[in-house]
Structure formats: structure tokens, C-alpha cells
């Protein structure tokens, strides 16, 4: 079954009401589940207001599960924005097509220049990001992957949703993972924020992880943009999506991110509240739902917050991020997608993690598995 | 007892206890045991069924309006033999339900995972409702589900051993991730084993030796019925869960992990 069919069976408002009606007994039952046996109803209880008094207990459990599964390690990655051109009009995004700002699509020299900066920092895994337009479609991405393949062990994409055959082809070109955030699963709110462009098609976006699974891509990243609608209901739908992927595409790895709306060029929308306590609450609930999923903590958050929260279920962090194409070297002043908060360099981030007894992990895959030349040699060059 | 019905391939079962029909001292003892167990699904070894038109010791004592038959391919040593046996059983017993067993090893009767998967792929295409008997192998169970198996039947312990849930850790994984019913089959020696399987979330159990070889099979069949009902009711009630001292101490741990949230403006 495709996730779109599952999504249609659940009314967003009804889900929000169900979460709000959960009791402390429901939360206790969820906390008593054996590891890996938390179901989506338990997950609703864990996300509920009734779970708030249990947050410390959830955090202890999330920390314990994470250390047992992943050790005291933290994967570090950085985004590499290839383009800020975008055909979508979205109310909350700096790249929105109605922003009358010069657009940039990196050429080969610019891509290699920014990549060189990231490689020099030691990153073995990077996230390639673009806006959504045919100008940065499959051909452009395939070219960028082939260009970067010799330099990095892990190349993840955060780009427009594509067809299954595009994904199969890009996997062959070296894409190791694809992140596609649904932004919101609320069918009433979604069209109010995605006014035009391909992103206005909510169902095509919802079906992306299924297309990735069928195409044989190794990892999918899920998430909702908190601030657009009821965060608890959106988080629950991300959990439902995660569980669907774990079941229907069980060979695929998963990751979950927790983007919150940040100030940016052209922002003028009211936000629904989603504070730092809520972010911790959501992350701990996800760790209890899935002991295996990677959870990612972004540089959108403050250094002070990240210094404490990284222990609470997270397994990967971005560091030293620039959210504009060319931002690392060739075009430092181009249009950025959103402002980051934690401005520490990758080295500073790694040093902080070591001071906390955590090992920063720069590389956790080798493209030799995919039939590409071993990264060990390429990285040494 | 009012617990949720089990659904396999669109058919509801209010009893989660499946029984084998071999090893009983007589057809009459079997019939009375089945009745006491409350079962609605019984396995029949195709090898034991008389196909020559003569009175059959097993089928002759089975009220087929009351019990759905689940022919098994016991004795098949390969996918090819299992498929031939399945086609014969569909013709002889007029059902496309099948417990698929492939065990080339006559000593321990261990199921062959490779041949079982292959046979499932073939039989599903031929329209059979396949319940596949396998080791408690979580990846194999996923592959069988993908191949279209209606249920998986992982073993609790070697068949006939009465050892109980020796494969517990793997059964837990299978139960947690299965999209089709999980029937724990083989090795269950006591009603407490059956209860434990249902408490874990297994959808049903299949028992033969423990009932048929008991001193009083009818009384033991009733005891298994009670064990299965208790286990299922406990699962639906939501077990409070046994927690280690370390788990219980989480809330009172010496270094709180969330106290920083009080300081941060959020």
C-alpha cells in the first residue's frame, strides 16, 4: 500500500484531538513497552500534553536507547547548496519564487570550490540542496554527483521530489540518501503555504518515500516543518510515515529531522508555537518509536540548545552550515534559505563533542559498496 | 472471553489455538480434544490422508463444518515436492489453504528456508493461501510476506521438543515487524508456553504433540485453550511490563537531561 492511501484514512484534526485526549495512563503504558514495540497509538500518547510531566523519563530512555544503538558518536555533515532557484511560491521560504532576488545555480568550478572547503574541514558526507525547478533536475543533479563522487563517501540529496526512474538513475550516480520533508501533513494548511509551483501537489510529495523505496535508494529522510500547523499531529504523521517506510521498504534506512521555521527573506506568516522544549519532546518520542532511525539536529538551533540537546536521541548534526549557494567560498553573499543560529565551525563542533565524551564521525559509508572507487583513496588525494 | 478476532486471508477466527491432528491414540480422542480446545483451524498431514476412497481415520472424525482444514506438506523435501503435494491437497481436500512445510532433514525436521521461500513464491501465484512454517528468522519472514504468504509460522523450539519459546528474542522481532499474522508453531510443551507467546503479541499458536501425547489429551486441550485465552487477554489489556532496576530509576537519575530547558527561553 502507498502512504498516500494511509494518509487519506486519517483526518488531521481528528488525529490532533486524539493526541490531546491521551491520559497519563496511556503515556505510562507506552513507556512500559519493550524496546521497538512502541506502536503509533503509543507514539500519540508520547507526543501528547499528558506526556509533558514524563519528559525527563523519556529523555533518559531516549539517551539510553541511542547510546546502546549508536554508541557515544555523532555523525557530522554539512549542506552544500547548489542553487537557490525555485519555481515554488511558499510563504515561509527564502527561495520562494516571488522573492525578486538574483538567483544562482553553481557551475562546476563553483561546486568544486565549495566542496573543497567542506572536504578540507574533514567532512566525508555532505547534503546537496537545491530549490525546486527543472533547471536543477535529474541531469543537473547527476552531473553534480559525478563531479563530487570522488571526493565524498556520502552524497545525500535534499531536492525537489522526482519520479521513481529518476531516483533509480541518481542512485546509480552515487546518491546515498534523499531527504524530503513533507512540511505539513495537514491538508488544510498545506495549500495555504504552498501557493504555486510543483510543490503545491501535496500527494506527489507524500508519495516520494514510496518512490525512493521502490527505486532502491538506501536511505530516506523525513520531517515536518514545525510552525505551520499543530506540531503534535504533524509529528505523529511523520511517525506514521516512518513506520510505513520501515514496513513497506524495510531495506531502506531512515532519518528524521526537526526543522523549525526560522527568520528569512520575505517571511511574514504567523507561526504556531513550537519551542525548544517541544523539539526535545518530539525527538525523544521519535527515539522511543524507532530505536534505529537517525535523528538529526540542525544548525538552525542555538549553540546553547544544541550543547544540551545533542544527547537526547540525536545521531547526526550539521556544523558550520551555509544555506546559500556558493556560501562557503565562491558567492558568500548570495540569497540564503534561512538563517542559521549555531555558527560554530566544524572543528569547534567536533572539539565540543569530544569534550563531552562523544566521538565525531565524519564518514560512515564507503562508496566501494556501491561499485565506486574506494573513498579512502579518494579522500586521501 | 471477548478478545479481538484473528483474521487470516480475510477469514475470522475467534480461537487463536490451532491444533494438529497427528499423534492421537484414536480418531475419537482427537475429536474430543479438538472440541475441548475450542479450535477452528486444524492441520492435516496430506501424507496421512487416504486418497483411495477408503474411510479415513482423521477426516472421518473431523466435522468439516466446524473446523477449517489446513493441509500441510509435511514430508516434502524440496519446493518442487511441496508444490506437487499442495496441488494434490487442493484436489483431495477441496481447500486452497496450505501450511507449507519443507524439511529435507528427517532427523530434526528443520524447515528449509531457501526451498520454503521458493515454494511460497510459486504457490501464491497458483492461488494458494500459504501459511509458511519456518525458523524464527526475521528477514526470512519479511521475504515470505513480500512473496505473499498469508501468515508466517515461526518455530518456538525444535518440533516435538516441548521446550517452549526458545526462540523468544527472534519471535519478538518478527512480531514487532510483521505485516501478516504470526503463528508460533512447534516446540510449545505447556499451556504456559502458549500463554507467553500470546502475551508477547503472537497472533496464534499451533500445538500438536503437547496435547496428543499428554496423559489426558482432552483435559490438556482445554488447558491450552485457557492458556491461549489468558495470554491474548493479557496482551490486549497491555502488560505493565517487567522493568529492570536501571529502567525504573530513569526518572530519578542523578544527572537530569532536561533541566536545561527550564533555563532556555523557548
Record the SSE blueprint.
The complex is a heterodimer of chains A (381) and B (266).
Chain A: H1 3-8, H2 12-20, H3 24-32, H4 40-47, H5 55-70, E1 73-81, E2 89-90, H6 108-121, E3 125-129, H7 138-148, E4 154-158, H8 164-172, E5 177-179, H9 190-193, E6 194-196, H10 202-206, H11 208-215, E7 219-223, H12 231-248, E8 253-257, H13 276-289, E9 294-297, H14 303-309, E10 316-318, H15 346-355, E11 359-361, H16 375-380
Parallel strand pairs in A: 1-3, 1-10, 1-11, 3-4, 4-5, 5-7, 7-8, 8-9, 9-10
Antiparallel strand pairs in A: 2-6
Helix pairs in contact in A: 2-12, 3-4, 4-12, 4-13, 5-13, 7-8, 8-11
Chain B: E1 6-8, E2 11-13, E3 17-20, H1 27-37, E4 41-45, E5 68-72, H2 79-93, E6 97-100, H3 113-125, E7 129-134, H4 138-147, E8 151-154, H5 168-177, E9 183-185, H6 191-200, E10 204-207, H7 209-212, H8 217-237, H9 245-248, H10 260-263
Parallel strand pairs in B: 3-4, 3-10, 4-5, 6-7, 7-8, 9-10
Antiparallel strand pairs in B: 1-2
Report on this model:
The complex is a heterodimer of chains A (381) and B (266). By secondary structure, chain A is of the alpha/beta class. Chain A contains 16 helices and eleven strands. Chain A has helices at residues 3-8, 12-20, 24-32, 40-47, 55-70, 108-121, 138-148, 164-172, 190-193, 202-206, 208-215, 231-248, 276-289, 303-309, 346-355, 375-380; strands spanning 73-81, 89-90, 125-129, 154-158, 177-179, 194-196, 219-223, 253-257, 294-297, 316-318, 359-361. In chain A, the strands form two sheets. Chain A has an eight-stranded parallel barrel with strand order 1-3-4-5-7-8-9-10, surrounded by five helices. Chain A has a two-stranded antiparallel ribbon with strand order 2-6. In chain A, helix 8 (164-172) crosses helix 11. Chain A is globular and about 60 Å long. In chain A, 51% of the residues are buried. The mean pLDDT of chain A is 90. Chain B starts with 5 loop residues before the first strand and ends with a helix. By secondary structure, chain B is of the alpha/beta class. The mean pLDDT of chain B is 87. In chain B, helix 2 packs across helix 3 (113-125) and helix 4 (138-147) packs parallel to helix 5 (168-177). In chain B, strands 5-4-3-10-9 form a five-stranded parallel β-sheet. In chain B, strands 6-7-8 form a three-stranded parallel β-sheet. In chain B, strands 1-2 form a two-stranded antiparallel ribbon. Chain A binds chain B through residues 29, 32-34, 36-37, 54-57, 59-61, 63-64, 246-247, 250, 275-278, 280, 304-305, 308-309, 311-312, and chain B through 142, 172-173, 176-177, 179, 201, 238-241, 243, 247, 250-251, 253, 256-258, 260-261, 264, 266.
Amino acid at each position: 500500500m502507498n502512504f498516500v492511501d494511509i494518509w487519506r484514512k486519517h483526518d488531521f484534526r481528528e488525529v490532533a484531538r486524539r493526541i490531546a485526549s491521551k491520559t497519563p495512563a496511556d503515556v505510562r503504558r507506552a513507556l512500559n513497552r519493550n524496546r521497538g514495540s512502541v506502536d503509533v497509538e503509543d507514539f500519540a500518547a508520547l507526543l501528547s500534553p499528558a506526556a509533558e510531566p514524563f519528559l525527563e523519563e523519556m529523555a533518559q530512555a531516549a539517551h539510553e536507547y541511542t547510546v546502546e544503538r549508536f554508541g557515544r558518536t555523532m555523525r557530522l555533515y554539512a549542506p552544500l547548496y547548489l542553487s537557490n532557484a525555485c519555481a515554488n511560491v511558499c510563504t515561509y521560504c527564502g527561495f520562494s519564487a516571488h522573492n525578486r532576488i538574483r538567483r544562482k545555480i553553481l557551475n562546476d568550478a563553483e561546486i568544486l570550490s565549495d566542496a573543497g572547503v567542506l572536504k578540507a574541514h574533514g567532512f566525508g558526507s555532505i547534503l546537496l540542496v537545491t530549490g525546486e525547478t527543472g533547471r536543477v533536475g535529474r541531469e543537473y543533479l547527476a552531473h553534480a554527483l559525478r563531479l563530487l563522487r570522488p571526493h565524498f563517501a556520502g552524497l545525500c540529496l535534499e531536492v525537489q521530489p522526482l519520479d521513481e526512474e529518476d531516483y533509480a538513475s541518481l542512485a546509480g550516480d552515487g546518491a546515498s540518501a534523499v531527504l524530503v520533508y513533507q512540511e505539513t501533513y495537514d491538508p488544510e494548511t498545506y495549500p495555504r503555504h504552498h501557493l504555486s509551483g510543483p510543490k503545491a501537489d501535496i500527494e506527489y510529495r507524500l508519495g516520494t518515500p514510496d518512490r525512493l523505496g521502490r527505486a532502491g535508494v538506501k536511505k530516506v529522510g523525513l520531517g515536518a516543518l514545525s510552525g505551520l500547523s499543530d506540531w503534535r499531529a504533524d509529528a505523529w504523521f511523520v511517525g506514521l510515515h516512518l513506520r510505513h517506510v520501515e514496513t513497506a521498504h524495510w531495506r531502506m534506512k531512515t532519518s528524521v529531522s526537526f526543522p523549525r521555521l526560522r527568520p528569512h527573506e520575505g517571511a511574514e506568516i504567523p507561526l504556531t508555537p513550537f519551542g525548544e522544549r517541544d523539539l526535545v519532546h518530539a525527538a525523544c518520542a521519535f527515539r522511543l518509536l524507532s530505536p534505529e532511525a537517525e535523528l538529526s539536529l540542525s544548525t538552525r538551533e542555538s549553540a546553547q540548545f544544541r550543547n544540551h540537546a545533542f544527547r537526547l536521541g540525536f545521531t547526526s548534526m550539521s556544523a558550520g552550515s551555509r544555506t546559500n549557494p556558493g556560501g562557503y567560498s565562491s558567492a558568500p553573499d548570495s540569497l540564503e534559505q534561512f538563517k542559521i543560529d549555531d555558527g560554530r565551525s566544524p572543528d569547534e563542533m567536533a572539539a565540543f563533542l569530544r569534550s563531552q565524551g562523544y566521538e565525531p564521525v565524519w564518514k560512515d559509508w564507503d562508496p566501494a559498496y556501491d561499485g565506486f572507487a574506494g573513498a579512502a583513496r579518494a579522500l586521501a588525494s | 472471553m471477548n478478545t479481538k478476532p484473528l483474521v487470516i486471508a480475510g477469514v475470522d477466527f475467534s480461537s487463536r489455538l490451532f491444533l494438529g491432528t497427528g499423534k492421537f491414540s484414536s480418531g475419537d480422542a482427537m475429536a474430543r480434544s479438538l472440541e475441548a480446545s475450542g479450535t477452528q483451524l486444524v492441520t492435516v498431514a496430506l501424507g496421512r490422508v487416504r486418497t483411495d476412497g477408503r474411510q479415513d481415520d482423521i477426516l472421518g472424525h473431523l466435522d468439516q463444518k466446524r473446523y477449517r482444514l489446513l493441509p500441510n506438506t509435511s514430508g516434502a523435501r524440496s519446493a518442487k515436492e511441496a508444490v506437487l503435494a499442495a496441488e494434490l491437497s487442493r484436489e483431495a481436500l477441496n481447500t486452497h489453504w496450505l501450511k507449507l512445510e519443507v524439511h529435507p532433514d528427517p532427523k530434526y525436521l528443520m524447515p528449509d528456508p531457501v526451498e520454503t521461500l521458493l515454494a511460497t513464491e510459486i504457490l501464491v501465484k497458483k492461488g494458494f493461501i500459504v501459511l509458511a512454517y519456518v525458523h524464527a528468522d526475521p528477514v526470512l519472514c519479511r521475504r515470505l510476506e513480500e512473496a505473499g504468504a498469508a501468515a508466517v509460522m515461526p518455530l518456538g523450539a525444535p518440533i516435538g521438543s516441548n521446550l517452549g519459546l526458545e526462540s523468544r528474542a527472534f519471535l519478538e522481532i518478527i512480531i514487532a515487524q510483521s505485516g501478516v499474522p504470526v503463528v508460533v508453531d512447534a516446540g510449545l510443551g505447556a499451556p504456559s508456553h502458549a500463554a507467553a507467546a500470546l502475551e508477547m503479541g503472537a497472533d496464534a499458536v499451533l500445538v500438536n504433540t503437547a496435547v496428543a501425547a499428554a496423559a489426558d489429551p482432552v483435559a490438556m486441550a482445554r488447558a491450552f485453550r485457557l492458556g491461549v485465552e489468558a495470554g491474548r487477554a493479557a496482551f490486549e489489556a497491555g502488560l505493565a511490563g517487567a522493568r529492570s532496576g536501571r529502567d525504573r530509576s530513569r526518572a530519578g537519575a542523578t544527572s537530569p537531561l532536561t533541566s536545561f530547558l527550564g533555563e532556555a527561553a523557548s
